[in-house]
Amino acid sequence: MNEFNGEIKKMMIILSKATLENVYAAFVLANGARMEGIEAEMFFTFFGLEAVHKKKLEHLHVATVGNPAMHMPTMLGGLPGMEALATNMMKKEMEKVDMPDVHEFLEILKASGVKLWACKLAMEMFHYKKEDMIDDLDGVITVGDFYKQGSGFGTHMLFV
Amino acid sequence: MEKIIEGKTISVNEEGYLTNFTQWDKNIGEAISKEVNITLTPRHWQVISYLQDEFKKESPLSIRKIGKSGVVDIKEFYALFPNAPLKTATKIAGIPKPASCI
């Protein structure tokens, strides 16, 4: 153990997926870190970029196919409207436990001091421009820049 | 367990949160704030009394709720009580630590 006695000082959370359950997991982890006095930074890459894309962030869905926890046959999950139905059901449950929507959650994260970074390579791959992304984004950076942000004792990295 | 704060014997849990709010007064709040290195200003007190009011109403506290309180926004809440604002502010306020993930 180092001088911090193993204490977590900073969480670096990488979000690579755009399914609602993954986006929320990453957001709750980042916000939860700040609530405990732990620094937090997020790196949005590949499909995770949709969570900080102005036009896409309101339309994220729960995955109904390839998700065994949905407890429905895969063929049913693929039917039209199934994802929307499951998403609406999940959103209702989230509201009950005081979970904000994606837009509001991003505002909370920003106000709480979480740094929000977009992955440069993925931005280029999807042909996204900085203007397409939320204004609260701290910047478009490389993976190397993100590692640099996480330097120091007590930093942990998490891939979602 | 018990702890002596400002010459009074106060019931606290193992994390130092008061377990009996009726034992709280402003001097106790001041003493706890010194332990957590916060100098209380009138703005801090406004937030503390809001938290206590919510506690009396048995209304669960969360960061989201504080942001919507109209008393303080989330950014200022973090500035007033740096490092774990909800935990720190409730400790000073003499109320239980909120069991909230959001």
Layout of secondary structure:
The complex is a heterodimer of chains A (160) and B (102).
Chain A: E1 10-15, H1 20-35, E2 39-44, H2 74-77, H3 82-96, H4 102-111, E3 115-119, H5 120-125, E4 139-141, H6 143-149, E5 155-159
Parallel strand pairs in A: 1-2, 1-5, 2-3, 3-4
Helix pairs in contact in A: 1-4
Chain B: E1 2-5, E2 8-11, H1 26-35, H2 42-56, H3 63-67, H4 74-80, H5 85-93
Antiparallel strand pairs in B: 1-2
What's the alpha carbon Rg of chain A, rounded to whole Å? Answer: 17 Å
Strand order of the largest sheet of chain B: 1-2
Distance between the termini of chain A: 27 Å
Q: How many domains is the backbone of chain B divided into?
A: 1
Strand order of the largest sheet of chain A: 4-3-2-1-5
Query: Structural class of chain A, please?
Result: alpha/beta
How much helical structure, as a percent, in the residues of chain A? 25-40%
> SSE order of chain A in H/E notation?
EHEHHHEHEHE
Q: Which stretches of chain B are low in confidence, meaning pLDDT under 50 for 5 or more residues running?
A: none
The biggest beta sheet of chain A, please?
Answer: 5 strands, parallel
Judging from the principal axes of the Cα atoms, what is the shape of chain A? Answer: globular
Task: Report the sheet with the most strands of chain B, covering strand number, pairing sense and barrel closure.
Answer: 2 strands, antiparallel
**Oligomer description:** heterodimer
Topology, number of strands of chain B: 2
- What is the helix tally of chain A? 6
Identify the overall geometry of chain B: globular
Mean of all residue-level pLDDT scores of chain A: 92
Strand percentage of chain B, roughly?
5-15%
Tell me what portion of residues of chain A adopts beta-strand conformation: 15-25%
